[in-house]
Amino acid sequence: MSDPRHMKRAITLARRGEGKVEPNPMVGCVLVRDGKVLGEGWHRVFGGPHAEIEALRAAAKAGPDVRGCDAYVSLEPCCHHGKTPPCTEALIDAGVARVLVGVADPFAQVAGRGIAALRDAGVQVEVGIEHEAASDLIAPFARRVTAGRPWVIAKWAQPLDGRIATATGQSRWISNDASRRQVHQLRARVDAVMVGVGTVIADDPQLTARDVRRLRVARRVVVDPSLRIPLDATLLRSLDAGHGGGPVMIATAQDAIDAHAATVSRLQARCCRCAGGRRRACLISSRCWRICRAVTMRRTCWSRAVRNC
Ligand SMILES: [Zn+2]
Question: Given 52, 54, 76, 130, which residue is catalytic?
Answer without folding.
Answer: 52
